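Appendix B. One record, verbatim.
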Amino acid sequence: MMQRVVANILDYHLRAPPGRRVAIVYPEEKATLAQAMAQGLVARDCQHQLIPVPDDASSLPDAALDAFDDGNIGLIVLLSPGMWSRQGVARLFVMRDGQPSLSVRPSPLFVDTVIAPESFLRVYSSDPREDWAHLESLRDRLPADAPVRVTAPGGTDLTFRARHWMICGHTEVLTAPVEGSAEGRIVADLSVFYGLVSAPIEVRLDGGRIVALRCADESDRLFRMYVDAMQRHFAAAEANRLLAEVGIGGNAGARPSGVIMEDEAVRGTCHFCFGDNARYGGANASEWHGGTVVVREPRFSAG
């Protein structure tokens, strides 16, 4: 699987020309992957520079910062939660064509999602060409700039007005619903941000915003964690109640795992996120985008 992952990333995501020097910035948990990337670059007549970043470091090392500012190289950035949260990597991200990308000078560029190594291997082992073809076909069938209804066997029944649908990587197609248009309920019967659910979690929306969070088992640990986190975000900004994203998974390699960045990529699922939607062409700007919930077997129709 590792060889297939490396080939997919270098041939379809990075596409570094022969002779190009490529810096690989990586955490310890992805050292094996970084080494495999380096070997793959050698096989493609590229030079490489390995730049390890300890998870407990308070800031990025000078070698990584120099690489970010070097327009004469390519760059591969493999992330961990520690790199993301403690070292300010999130502040280097900007939106390009509706997708988050590092604001750095090197080209070509590959940046992974903040995803566990096992999930990373499953997601990137999938054939990008087949995933993109699947997502393009899905996007072309979805109502755009129009009312949409999504239902699911678990109880989800939500209507909203979609903007245009965009393909994000080789994992999903998504839209930012028009502010104030979402009405109904989402029932997360696969996962939420903290893991796979044991008791489905219901999110009620009115006027595009969350008005209630419910669970058949109000004492469920995952539900309590989710409610506590969402209440903190609601207290920080009323804008964080807004339904910001509706995404449909399209990756053939992803499997339900409790890792949210993998769960939301699984084919046959859809996910909903809240807060900031400006990154996807909306008008609700916030410093937070998250609270993801994932639903099994969604069905989309004109609303």
